[in-house]
Amino acid sequence: MASFGSMAATIEKSTLVEKVEKDAVSVTITVTSEGNPVAGALVKVVNDKTVVAAGTTNEMGVVAIKLPTYNGEAVNIEVYHRLYKTDKKEAVVLSDGGNVGFALKSKSAALTEIQADAEATEEKLNEKIQGENESKEEYEKRMAEAKERQEQLQQETSEVKTVTEEQQKETEATRAETEAKEKEMEAQRQEIEKRKAEQEAQLNEGQADREAEMRKRQEEQEARLKALEEEEAKKMEEIDASAAEKEAEKAQKAQKEAAKEAEKAAKEKEKALKEEKDRAAEEAKEAKEQAKAEEKAQKAEEEAKKEAEKAQKEAEKAQKEAEKAQKEAEKEQKAIEKEAKKAEALQKKIDKLDAEQKKIDDARAKLDSKQKKLDKKIAKGKNLDKLKTEQEKLQEEHSKLDEKQNKLDAKRKKLMK
Fold it and tell me: Is 132 helix (H, G, I), strand (E, B) or coil?
């Protein structure tokens, strides 16, 4: 210790290990065709002819691609779909949180176009049949009944929307309250972390040299673990790419079959409508056709009501989630308060150790003062036998202080665990 005299300086040679850090990067790929999202498209990220990442677009035409390691090199991005022409972009430099868009060209008519044509044909046929066969009075009566039903559905839908909006406002208020509570807890967490850092510095005072070697070993071990993790991540990327290809292949097959079925259904429907037109022209039964049109309008209103009820259920779900988040925040608050109490208890223990350290230092200072007086007597050369006995007593008292110091250091190490 410094109070016993000067310590020998030790020069340690350390080997500097250069670490090449490769950061992870996450980007989103958006795939559309004529402004509409394309689902089930296979997206590959290729670097030097090797697929490093892959994924399949969702119903919104979006897929998130993550590369665990990326050092800024240029890559190629390729997009595949059975119903569209393949597209790719070369020499793309990725940025974390960035977006790369693709606009595919269709190989055949889209499903929505087939359905739209069929619905337009049906509407024209219904209008022609109505104009030829139904009387004006019957038509007006039927239209009045349909309008009344539609107004009733609209009123019910409006009421459901009003309740949903009120629930959404209540959910937003709860969410705002939870966020405020989280900010308050974050401030408390930071204060506890600051206090922990101060306590750790207080415990670590004078022990930096003893821990330097341990830190060096830990850094070397972390470097080895990181190398193993990067190798494992590389293998996982190859597995993910294969899985993404299979998923995209499955989705695209399903979409192609759906397009065929839709086209077949549209043709069959068009044929049936044509036959219905011929029968209606011969038998003058457009009243039946008008009823279909009214039923369709009524179903549309019923669908609108269902959508409003669905929105209401989603609002109720959001409310429950907000309440759950609030409970979690309260739980976390209790944990923070517990940590604060632990920190306070730790500080008391540290203060007690500091008091013991002061007693040892004071006793050591008294021994140093006695040693100086004894050195002066020894320098005179008189009563050396008696002075030798006094020197041995001083040495024994130093040894006792050393034991106390070792026990105190052991207590400090125990607090740090």
Answer: helix
The reported pLDDT for the residue numbered 4 is: 36
Beta bridge partners of 27: 65
Q: What is the predicted pLDDT for the residue at 239?
A: 56
Residue 153 contacts by C-beta under 8 Å, 6 or more apart in sequence?
A: 298, 301, 302, 304, 305
Give, in degrees to the nearest 5, the angle at Cα 313 between 308 and 319.
125
Tell me the residue type at 293.
A
Q: What is the pLDDT of residue 12?
A: 35
Longest Cα–Cα distance in the chain? 148
pLDDT < 50 regions, the chain: 1-21, 110-111
Nearest to 413 by CA among 218, 207, 196: 207
State pTM to two decimals: 0.33
Query: Bridge-partner residues for 31, per DSSP?
Result: 102
Structural domain spans, the chain: 23-103, 108-350
Query: In whole angstroms, how far apart are CA 27 and each of 7, 70, 171?
Result: 57, 12, 31
Per-residue HEC secondary structure of 272-336 comes to HHHHHHHHHHHHCCHHHHHHHHHHHHHHHHHHHHHHHHHHHHHHHHHHHHHHHHHHHHHHHHHHH
- CA-to-CA distance for 19 and 326, rounded, in angstroms? 43
Q: Are 64 and 55 in contact (CB under 8 A)?
A: yes
> What is 14-36 written as a DSSP string?
---------EEEEEEEEEEETTE
What is the pLDDT at residue 153?
66
What was the pLDDT predicted at 250? Answer: 83
Would you say 46 and 78 are in contact if contact means Cβ atoms under 8 Å apart?
A: yes
CATH of domain 23-103: 2.60.40.10
Residue 29 neighbours by CB under 8 Å, 6+ apart: 43, 55, 57, 62, 63, 65, 77, 79, 99, 100, 101, 102
CA dihedral sign of residues 128, 133, 135, 138? negative
Residue among 293, 299, 300, 304 nearest 156 (CA): 304
> Which two tokens mark 106?
């269709």
Q: Which of 239, 238, 246 is nearest to 42 (CA)?
A: 246
**Could you give the count of Cα atoms lying within 13 Å of 379 in the half-sphere of its Cβ?**
6
User: What is the pLDDT, as a whole number, of residue 155?
Assistant: 78
Is residue 131 a contact partner of residue 280, using CB atoms and an 8 Å limit?
Answer: no
